[in-house]
Specification:
The structure is a single chain. It is elongated, with a radius of gyration of 27 Å. It has one domain. Helix 5 runs antiparallel to helix 7 and helix 7 packs antiparallel against helix 8. It is mostly helical. It contains nine helices and no strands.
């Protein structure tokens, strides 16, 4: 193993192509945000929106309804984050489907090859799963404060190592689900292209090129569009559910603290009662 290559600094031509796809998806999202910003400046709120703004409003209303139903009124306004994550996932699958040539690395090994789905690289599904992880625990710390740390010693302090390990289970679940589906779709589509060029006799002929336009679009439609939409829905819904589970309303938090204080008081009274009985026995 050449450890020099492992620690070799990345350059423009050695960057993974999935990173370029991710940057392209983020750039498209930025352009869409700027277009929305410009159109809103010239938008008359007294008129019914039409065209592009009508689509944007429908998407925002749908995201807000999902947030209210899955997370509750305490997370009003959280729909913006859900839209960004969902759009990023969809664009990643879409760019991987249309096969934009890699013109950004003229000296790289993948020059002019189609940019892949970014989620076939484990780093990118892990990155957005970590965003969900940090938002989940930030919400819990913000709401529960000191009570947040009690989860790691429940039901008894001996379970601390186990609880520290299981806290990462949601990150692994979100990451591997998105990564596995993206990689499986990429492998199946690659096998279709390779199979059509070799399985049709005579071997090595170009008859497969005539069948590619008939079969490949159906595979792309399923593994890139349909599967991408499913992964978008699953990832965003699990994100909302995981974060909402950590929220406790101020009233519920006060009730929990009151019950805890009551348990401590009863425990203290039992100890005092035991001491009193011991003193009575010693006096006799």
């Amino acid at each position: 193993m050449d450890f020099g290559k492992i620690i070799e600094p990345l350059t423009r031509n050695t960057l993974p192509p999935e990173f370029l796809t991710s940057l392209l998806a983020l750039l498209i999202m930025l352009v869409i945000a700027l277009v929305i910003r410009v159109k809103l400046k010239h938008y008359d709120p007294l008129k019914k929106p039409s065209g592009f703004l009508n689509v944007v409003e429908s998407v925002i209303n749908f995201a807000d309804r999902q947030v209210r139903s899955l997370m509750g009124p305490a997370f009003e306004g959280f729909g913006g984050y859900i839209i960004c994550v969902g759009l990023y996932i969809f664009l990643g699958f879409f760019i991987g489907m249309i096969g934009i040539p890699n013109v950004f690395q003229p000296g790289g090994e993948t020059f002019l090859e189609a940019l892949p789905n970014p989620f076939t690289n484990l780093a990118f599904p892990l990155s957005i799963a970590l965003l969900t992880f940090f938002l989940t625990h930030y919400t819990s710390i913000r709401v529960k404060k000191r009570a947040y740390f009690e989860r790691y010693i429940e039901p008894i302090p001996v379970f601390l190592p186990i609880n520290l390990v299981t806290m990462w289970s949601n990150v692994l679940s979100l990451t591997l689900r998105l990564f596995g589906n993206a990689l499986a779709g990429y492998c199946v589509i690659t096998l279709i292209y390779c199979g059509l060029s070799t399985a049709i006799p005579p071997e090595g002929s170009y008859w497969g090129m005539f069948f590619d336009p008939l079969i490949a679009p159906l595979a792309h439609l399923y593994f890139d569009i349909f599967d991408g939409a499913i992964q978008l829905a699953v990832f965003t819904m699990l994100t909302m559910i995981n974060i909402a589970q950590e929220y406790i309303s101020p009233q519920e938090l006060l009730e929990a603290k009151t019950k805890k204080a009551e348990r401590k008081r009863l425990k203290r009274e039992k100890k005092e009662l035991k001491k009193t009985k011991k003193l009575e026995k010693s006096a006799i």
